[in-house]
Structures are given as C-alpha cells and as structure tokens.
Design a protein that fits this description.
The chain is α+β, with helices and mostly antiparallel strands and about 400 residues long. It has 10 helices and 24 strands. The structure holds fe (ii) ion (FE2).
Length: about 400
C-alpha cells in the first residue's frame, strides 16, 4: 500500500479574517489556521468561466489578476463548507473548505502532503519482490493492473511470472502499462549474447548496476526485461539496486559527496560511428522542490571525460568512486535470477540494474527489452486509483531525472 505523507482533513471553515495586507486568514473547525493571498484566491477560482475543474484547464490569465484584487463581499456559506467571494469587478468565486485546506501553502505540512513515500530496499528486496502471475495481469482486469502499478510506485520494481515465451509478448505487456517509447535502438531491443555487441547487454560479461541510457536528455522511464531464454541455472542473474536508497545513504554518511552528485553535472555520452552521437550533461541525483531525490541516472560505461573546475576534480572523481563502490556492494544488490517467462518491470530513473557473468557455452541468454514513458505509467496509476484507492488519486510521485 502506497503511503501518502499526509492526508487532507475534512474540516469545515469556522473563521474568516480579512487583513489589510492583501491576504486573509481562514480557520478550520480543528483549530488550524492558514493565510491565503487574495491574488492566489482570484487565480484559483474554479468557476466555469475561469476554467474546467474536471480537466484542470484554466481560461484566466495571471496577467489579468492584480497583486491586491479588491473584494466587494466575502463570507462563509453552507455552514462553513464553502468560502464565497464577490470580487471588485463583480466576478463571483466559491471555494470548497476541504479543497482550500489541501492547498494551504501557509502550512509546512502542505508541501509534503500527497507526496508518495517510496519504500526503500537493499538486497532484502528478494524476500518481498511483488510478483504477479502473468495470467492475473492478463485476465485480472483493472484491479490487478492497479495492484501492479501500486507496487511499482512503492518499490520501483515488480515481476510477472509465466508470461508467454514469444517475442511479440514483450510489447503487448508493455502497452498495457502505458505508451511505449521508440528510440534509436527500436521499439523493442533484443538483448542476446552475440560476437559483435552494440550494447553491453549483448555480451556475456558481468554488468555493474547502472541506469540505461543516461546520455539522453530524458532517459528511458519504465523498463521491461522479458526473459525468453536463460543461460543456465543461476547464471546471468539480474542485480538490482535501489538508487533512492543509495542517495539517502550518501546524504546521511557522505553529505558533501551527496551534494556534489545533486548539484554538479556529469558528462554522459554514447557513440555508434555514423549512426548516433548522444551526449548529455546531467546530475546523478535529481531533487524535487522539497529536496527529496526524485531521479537517479548513472552508468559508468557511458561517462565521458569530465570537465569541471581544476580544484574540484579530485573530489568529483572520489565521489564517483564512492558511488560506484556502493553500487557494487552485495549488501545493496538484490539478486534476481530470470527464468523464461519472467518479466521484470522497473523504474529506470530510480532502480539500477546489472547482472552476473555467464558462460556463452552454457546456452543462449535472450532478453527482450522495451520502455514505457514514466508519466504515462504514473497517469494510469492515478486514473485507476480514483476507482480503487481514491486517497491516492492525487499522489505526487517522484518525477524522475532532470538535467
Ligand atoms: Fe542496461
């Protein structure tokens, strides 16, 4: 069950005081008070001529609202259930008491309200990895899909078992989650060990945990690994690391290193001569407006020569070494062997993936990989939450990597 940092209460308004400084003070029946600027209220009018409350479309413009709009009349109506305002120009607004409480930006808790709290993990994820039979995913309707998406938002990773072992199934499963994004590697990529690899996943070598394609301005969102053939028992197991866990560890244990990775841009690049020359400068840890880590990107195979101020370079390289050691520490790695018919679905802007080495001679390992836009998946989760868990339908989720 996704935890929401706090919930809007259902109190009525009992107090209204309009001050001289272009703001008013509202009091709710549980004793909480908060100030609102009159300009904020006028901009937030949810009447039909100002916008469409259902879709969130606005017809008003910030350009039309003065810093201190005048008021002809203001009062609490419907026994404190609403605040009614008649503005200086005759326009009438009516605000729901509960809605106002949820928007009370004067209260510190409002900033954290409705924000999902990710469930962080280390190697112990293997004991509780959310796993759904493919048949339930296929036949369980939207309730089963919601359960899957909820777990994906909580942990950043879920698994399907018993999916069809045929190539077309990869895109069919992905399309149920959200819009598939095509890249220069195509709509679905075959990760099959071969002598002329284009990406590291096409070799039999061990892979250090990484996020895919950090060299894109906007890296892949939700990744699917669909296993069609495994390379022998226990070989080529996936090694998954919770990047949010690593970020919080560094924030607590190595705050200067954390700050460097959250503020300094690292240079990532990928070249296939004559085909692609991708390059991005971006921070390893992205933070949202409240300081929470909301996105991770890192792949030390795709890092170009770093350029920063001379005196910072030793610290930057030390910091990248610290991060890499944490990613390679088995304590942080959940080891998940993939069998034919398994599908790992994970957030590529939170969860890093690697794998153990395997012997080419032990058999051909074949994964199919494709990715789905994160905002599309999050939109589907919120849309389904409106039916299955209404308190979560407004949840603010980590929005992923910025630059
Ligand atoms: Fe990868």
């Amino acid at each position: 069950m996704l935890k929401v940092a706090s919930e809007t209460c259902g109190e009525d308004l009992v107090g209204l005081h309009v001050g001289a400084a272009a703001h008013l003070r509202l009091g709710w029946s549980d004793g909480v008070e908060a100030r609102f600027h009159l300009s904020w209220l006028r901009n937030a009018c949810r009447c039909e001529s100002c916008g469409d409350p259902a879709s969130g479309l606005r017809w008003t413009s910030f350009a039309d609202v003065p810093r201190a709009p005048g008021i002809r009349r203001i009062e609490l109506v419907e026994r404190g259930g609403r605040l009614a305002v008649v503005w200086h120009d005759g326009h009438e607004s009516s605000f729901d008491a509960v809605w106002l409480r949820g928007c009370a930006y004067d209260l510190p808790e409002t900033l954290a309200a409705r924000r999902a709290v990710p469930r962080l993990w280390r190697a112990n994820l293997t004991e509780r990895l959310a796993t759904l039979p493919h048949a339930a995913f296929r036949d369980g309707g939207e309730a089963a899909l919601f359960d899957l998406l909820q777990a994906l938002c909580d942990d950043g990773i879920v698994r399907l078992r018993g999916a069809p072992v045929r190539p077309e199934a990869t895109a069919e499963i992905a399309a149920r989650l959200g819009p598939i994004r095509e890249t220069s590697y195509g709509l679905v990529q075959d990760l099959i060990s071969k002598p002329d690899p284009q990406v590291a996943g096409q070799t039999a070598r061990a892979q250090v945990p990484h996020t895919d394609e950090p060299f894109r301005y906007s890296p892949p969102g939700i990744l699917l690994f669909h296993c069609l053939a495994a390379a022998g028992a226990g070989a080529g197991a996936s090694l998954m690391v919770d990047g949010f866990r690593i970020a919080e560890d560094m924030r607590a244990e190595a705050p200067d290193a954390f700050e460097m990775l959250a503020t300094r841009q690292i240079s990532f690049e990928r070249r296939h001569p004559g085909e692609v020359a991708l390059q991005a400068e971006a921070r390893v840890f992205s933070r949202d407006g409240t300081g929470r880590v909301c996105g991770v990107r890192f792949n030390d195979r795709c890092i170009g020569p770093q350029i920063c101020a001379f005196h910072l370079m030793p610290d930057l390289l030390d910091t990248l070494g610290d991060l890499s050691r944490r990613l390679q520490d088995p304590v942080n790695q959940a080891r998940i062997p993939l069998e034919p018919g398994d599908v790992l679905i994970f957030d590529n802007q939170r969860v890093l993936h690697g794998r153990t080495a395997f012997k080419q001679s032990a058999g051909t390992r074949r994964l199919r990989s494709c990715h789905v836009d994160r905002d599309g998946v999050h939109s589907r989760y919120r849309t389904l939450a409106a039916r299955f868990a209404p308190a979560e339908s407004d949840t603010v989720l980590p929005q992923g990597c910025t630059v």
